[in-house]
Specification:
The structure holds two protein chains of two kinds. By secondary structure, chain A is of the alpha+beta class. Chain A is built from 13 helices and twelve strands. Chain A has helices at residues 12-19, 33-38, 73-78, 80-85, 87-94, 99-104, 107-112, 118-121, 164-170, 188-191, 271-277, 284-295, 306-323; strands at 5-8, 24-27, 46-49, 57-59, 65-68, 174-179, 182-187, 210-216, 223-230, 238-249, 252-261, 268-269. Chain B folds into three domains: 62-168 and 224-272 and 278-310, Aldehyde Oxidoreductase, domain 3; 179-218 and 314-475 and 625-769, Aldehyde oxidase/xanthine dehydrogenase, molybdopterin binding domain (Aldehyde Oxidoreductase, domain 4), CATH 3.30.365.10; 477-620, Aldehyde Oxidoreductase, domain 4 (2-Layer Sandwich). Chain B is 26% helix and 24% strand. Chain B is globular. The chains are: A alpha+beta, B alpha+beta. Chains A and B meet through α8 and α13 of A and α4 of B. The complex binds flavin-adenine dinucleotide and iron/sulfur cluster.
């Protein structure tokens, strides 16, 4: 690991000021960044620790919930309001990593964690366009089990590994970003970027900006869940995951929200599936049709073609389950 | 592993078949068999308390003044040479004391490859270690950095710039098959066996199966990383290592560094898991050389990535198993052949056909292994090398045949149980696998299995049951020596260089010494883990306990004569000869007149001696050659497969074992369970991602290489027959590796029973079931 200077920010203003400089990086729980520094993938000169910043979870006047970026993943999952109103979020968080890691990991760090592509992680021995723009992508033609089936490009086929982000996208979360020019609010769905020609650009965070908080708008009561499919029962990243919520009134779908994880460089809001379902019947045929509508855009690789079918089946099973006896 | 060896072993075997059994070791069964004492009791581990307290010192925790730290640099190409190596930046980095490369590494000969005939041959690779600019596999050590702190060494290692001139390398299993070679023997067994006309029998059998099975590369993942702390004082070398071959390593280091054997001390009192991976690899040679070069004690603890790069694991295999059976299900042909990797610089033949030779009776056999050479870190012994994956193929095939015959798979196995070695005809020393099958089936509730696949379900989950037979040969290593000391205060100590890797070896040694000497457990201590002690063999082949036990037996047979000599004329024992006394009640007693007795304390006090010691070695393990000796098992599995996702959840496992005397139910159960869990990893989750384009391992981390986690591990039930083996010391056979055998077959067969899908390709990941 390259020697690094460690600073601790005592306010977000200080963090923004310190974090803006070249070679400076914010540090949350360190569960991803420190690992990558040990592997030589990340080499910041200065770490600005933001994990100690106040991170209240508060209810705003309009009923939305605001979660500070330094809140620990486990605290968010255990929070009574999260559990009561956004159970799919609590489930998604608890489906990720291990208890120890969730105790350390922050919300900001979770959203900003890097891909788990094994070629990205192999700084010594593999080529990677995300790590070294323009150098090539050794994942193409290599191990692609955990790689994208949606929205990838010839430059990069990596996925975003977060479980939490999948639920947040389904819940229409917004991010409060703060920089030298003040605070702005963006939809999480737009925050992560597809790779295109520049896979090194992963989010819309501008240099010197930080995530201040996550805002969850109020939702009407709905049946919702998070289902994660992985290679062992726990402590593995998603091959495919589905966050979904549904409101069925008189056999018709009054509201539906679906996001899929493990399939793209961003938590994938399944807008086509939602559109095909909205106001339609809550039937298995409709669910199959919706899943297929979404996955028609899939462009899998030899090593991950099964994920198209896996995603379809998981989507259908989750929606069928949520629609209950009606379907 | 030569033709000569085949001839020698073959000759010894046929000669021994004429020798009456009573003349051989185990000819008269060990007197401790069947006696109720400490053996067989659930003693707690003697090192449990210090481990729980964190007081057990492992190799990377030994404190030393002036200690410095090393990090390895690995090649990133599979084959070629180093065209340019620039270490200037590393050498001038903070804290750096030394950069070792092929340019300044002293001349050191690599240890000789592991061999059954030479206990000092313990090398896993005989490639030169930093001796030249050649690269032979991706991940090979190309440099090492020594610095004042680990962090400084780690950082400086990243500053070494290397340009390679890559050469053509074969890194693809499939491509390399055409160049496969056939070696004459697998360890001490002949490789090619042809008995009857198996292909012809197969062709005319009314029922047959004939399929290919594949298993993937696996890596060692002992929780304790490979590590050593090495210190030179003049020409004396002390190495604290984590190793399963203490005596062999001391001898090998002495040879490599050109110093007398008694000037090397290897200490390894605790090993945090070995499983075959904690042998000699390049890092010990590099660390010991570097410590000498810097003139300071040095620690090299491999990173997890380094373990993956330079410590080999289990080779991938492609195996064909074919079985022909008559209308009653009796096997008329059993064929097992295939391919695995063994580079010319490696030593492990991955003997996946060994178990097949003694598992079932058959009219004809055809068995052959082919070895292919690809540019990879040499594969090595990994818990039941061979059997773990060989039983997957064989036991899957038996299940497939049972299905074709519409016969219960347990019944089919019972029908083909051998009553002697099916090929050599040697008598079994003891064999009750049939009982293991019946006991296991009854306890597991096997009768609840639906004969028709895919018929049981709960919600989206399909439920299935499967079984598989397991086996592992009895091995006793020649040359085990021990020193047994009895003291005036009534205590005794057994000393040998054995290795405690968490199996409970030390605990079981204490139990048997207590029984042999007639002492309470609390009076017995054990000293192991030090090459200065009488040399025990390596911990491998599930052989350590019986190898040491034979030496303990020999020492206990020597001790009475010594004590009687000391007892003298005024002792109640006076006039008795060694053969006329027994050790019991903390002393000696006449066998015919038990009232004539005297305690060790009394004898030594009168002789005015603090202690008496005897050193002894076990008899040569000829019983192995005369008898067919195997631990066997019957494994049962119940699991669920999601109809939606193909995910598998194992709900129940049961292992039913026939392994001779169970010396300590607690440590034995934990060996069995541990093996079975490793078997689940083999069956379901573990796979080294070896990128065939580059020969590079892409998942060298515990996050990306999936060992089973707690949630993958179900309730595991273990039972055993506990029938002593009359031919082995204590009536015991090996138990350390058998637990992993048979499991992958049981799991695959349960998956078939649940879904009707036959997966012949490990690990059984969900995509194979969609
Ligand atoms: C073995 C293992 C298994 C895992 N399994 C899963 C899993 O199954 N599912 C899952 O979802 N995750 C999993 N994770 C990932 C884990 O969730 C992330 O490592 C964690 O959420 C990162 O949070 P952190 O606070 O530790 O981030 P850090 O490592 O501290 O930082 C990560 C990144 O976020 C940036 N950052 C931190 N805070 C801010 C901020 N406020 N504003 C802007 N940028 C910021 C940092 O600069 C850095 O680039 C796993 C991790 C490990 C090590
Ligand atoms: S998929 Fe993306 S992250 Fe992985 S190697 Fe290719 S460019 Fe790098």
């Amino acid at each position: 690991m390259t020697p690094v200077t460690y600073l601790r920010a005592d306010s977000s203003a200080a963090a923004i000021a310190l974090g803006a400089a070249d070679g400076h990086r914010l540090l949350g729980g360190g569960t991803n960044l420190i690992d990558l520094m040990r592997k030589g993938v990340e080499q910041p000169a200065v770490l600005v620790d933001v994990s100690g910043l106040a991170a209240p979870i508060t209810e705003a006047a309009d009923g939305s919930l605001v979660i500070g970026a330094a809140a620990r993943n486990s605290d968010v999952a255990a929070h009574p309001l999260v559990r009561a109103r956004y159970p799919m979020l609590a489930r998604a968080i608890l489906a990720g990593a291990s208890a120890q890691i969730r105790n350390m990991a922050t919300v900001g760090g979770n959203l900003m964690q890097r891909t788990r592509c094994v070629y990205f992680a192999d700084a010594a021995g593999s080529r990677c366009n995300k790590r070294v723009p323009g150098s090539g992508c050794d994942a193409l033609g290599g191990f692609t089990r955990y790689h994208a089936i949606l929205g990838a490009s010839p430059a990069c086929i990596a996925t975003h590994p977060s479980d939490m982000a999948v639920a947040l996208v389904a819940l229409d979360a917004r991010l409060h970003l703060a920089g030298a020019d003040g605070v702005r609010s963006v939809a999480l769905a737009n925050f992560h970027q597809l790779p295109g020609d520049s896979p090194e650009v992963e989010t819309m965070l501008a240099p010197g900006e930080m995530i201040l908080a996550v805002e969850l708008p109020p939702v009407q009561p709905m049946r919702s869940t998070y289902r994660k499919v992985r290679d062992r029962a726990s402590y593995a990243f998603a091959l495919v995951s589905v966050a979904a919520g549904i409101v069925v009134e008189d056999g018709r779908i009054a509201d539906v929200r679906i996001a899929v994880g493990g399939v793209a460089a961003k938590p994938w809001r399944a807008a086509r599936a939602e559109a095909s379902l909205r106001d339609g019947p809550a039937s298995v045929e409709a669910f199959v049709q919706a899943a297929q509508a979404e996955l028609a855009q899939a462009d899998p690789l030899p090593g991950n073609a099964f994920k198209v079918q896996l995603a379809e089946r998981t989507l259908v099973a989750v929606l069928t389950d949520l629609a209950g006896g009606d379907a | 592993m030569s033709r000569v060896q085949n001839v020698i072993v073959g000759t010894a075997r046929s000669a021994l078949s004429w020798v009456p059994a009573q003349w051989l070791p185990g000819g008269t069964p060990d007197p401790l068999i069947g006696r109720h004492g400490e053996i067989g009791r659930q003693a707690s581990r003697i090192d449990g308390e210090i481990k729980v307290r964190g007081e057990a010192r492992f190799a990377a925790e030994v404190a030393m003044d002036g200690l410095c730290y090393a990090t390895l640099v690995h090649s990133t190409i599979a084959r070629g040479r180093i065209a340019r190596l620039d270490s200037t930046a590393a050498e001038t980095a903070p804290g750096v004391l030394l950069v070792v490369t092929h340019r300044n590494m002293p001349k050191v000969a690599s240890p000789s490859l592991v061999s059954m005939s030479d206990p000092t041959a313990v090398g896993n690779s005989d490639l030169p270690i930093l001796q030249d600019d050649r690269v032979h596999y991706n991940g090979q050590v190309v440099a090492a950095v020594v610095a004042a702190t680990q962090e400084q060494a780690d950082h400086a290692a990243t500053l070494i710039a290397i340009d390679y001139e890559a050469a053509q390398a074969e890194t693809r299993f499939g491509q390399a098959k055409s160049g496969a070679r056939i070696i004459p023997s697998l360890l001490i067994e002949r490789n090619h066996l042809s008995f009857g006309k198996a292909e012809r029998e197969l062709a005319r059998a009314p029922h047959r199966v004939d399929n290919l099975y594949r298993t993937q590369w696996q890596n060692h993942n002992a929780i304790e990383l490979h590590a050593l702390t090495a210190a030179w004082v003049g020409d004396r070398l002390t190495v604290h290592d984590t190793t399963q071959m203490i005596a062999g390593e001391a001898a090998a280091l002495a040879k490599a560094f050109g110093i007398p054997r008694d000037q090397v001390q290897v200490l390894s009192p605790f090993v945090g898991g070995g499983f075959g991976g904690k042998g000699m690899w390049d890092h010990q040679i590099v660390a010991v050389a570097a410590a000498r070069m810097v003139g300071r004690p040095l620690r090299l603890q491999l990173s997890r990535e380094s373990v993956y790069r330079i410590v080999g694991g289990r080779s991938a295999t492609e195996q064909r198993v074919a079985i022909g059976a008559d209308a009653d299900g009796c096997f008329t042909a059993l064929l097992h052949d295939g391919w695995s990797v063994m580079p010319p610089y490696g030593a492990c033949p991955e003997a996946y056909t060994l178990g097949t030779r003694s598992a079932y009776r058959a009219k004809s056999f055809e068995i052959l292994q082919r070895h292919i050479d690809i540019a990879v870190v040499p594969n090595t012994f990994m818990r039941a090398p061979g059997e773990a994956i060989g039983t997957f193929a064989l036991e899957s095939a038996v299940d497939e045949l049972a299905h074709n015959l519409a016969m219960d798979p347990v019944e089919l196995r019972l029908r083909n149980m051998p009553d002697k070695h099916p090929i050599t005809g040697a008598p079994f020393s003891q064999h009750a696998q049939d009982q293991a099958w019946r006991d296991g089936a009854a306890r597991f509730g096997w009768e609840q299995r639906a004969a028709k696949p895919g018929t049981r379900r709960e919600g989206e989950w399909r439920i299935g049951m499967g079984c598989g037979g397991g086996s592992f040969p009895y091995v006793r290593m020649p040359g085990a020596a021990v020193r047994l000391t009895v003291r005036r205060d009534g205590t005794a100590t057994l000393a040998c260089s054995g290795q405690e890797m968490g199996m409970g070896t030390a605990t079981v040694v204490v139990q048997q010494v207590a029984d042999r000497l007639g002492l309470p457990l609390s009076a017995v201590t054990v000293e192991i883990g030090d090459s200065a002690l009488p040399a025990a063999p390596m911990a491998g082949g599930s052989s350590q306990t019986v190898s040491i036990a034979a030496a303990v037996l020999a020492a206990a047979e020597k001790l009475p004569a010594e004590l009687l000599r000391l007892a003298g004329n005024s002792s109640p024992l006076s006039g008795l000869r060694a053969g006329e006394v027994r050790m019991e009640g903390e002393g000696l007693a006449s066998a015919s007149e038990p009232a004539r007795r005297e305690t060790f304390r009394a004898i030594l006090s009168r002789a005015n001696l603090e202690e008496v010691s005897v050193t002894a070695s076990g008899t040569p393990p000829l019983e192995m050659l005369k008898f067919a000796m195997h631990s066997t098992a019957a494994m049962f599995c119940e699991l669920r497969v999601s109809d939606v996702t193909g995910e598998i959840r194992v709900d129940r496992l049961l292992g039913s074992f026939d392994c001779g005397t169970i010396l300590n139910p607690r440590t034995a159960a934990s060996q069995f369970r541990g093996g079975m869990i490793m078997g689940l990893g083999l069956a379901l989750t573990e796979e080294t991602l070896l990128d065939e384009r580059s020969g590079r391992i892409m998942n060298p981390t515990l996050a990306d290489y999936h060992v089973p986690v707690h949630m993958d591990v179900p309730q595991i039930d273990v039972i055993w027959t506990d029938i002593p083996d009359p031919r082995s010391p204590l009536g015991a056979r090996g138990i350390g590796e058998i637990g992993i055998t048979g499991i992958a077959g049981a799991v695959a067969n349960a998956v078939f029973n649940a879904t009707g899908k036959r997966v012949r390709d490990l690990p059984i990941t969900l995509d194979k079931l969609l």
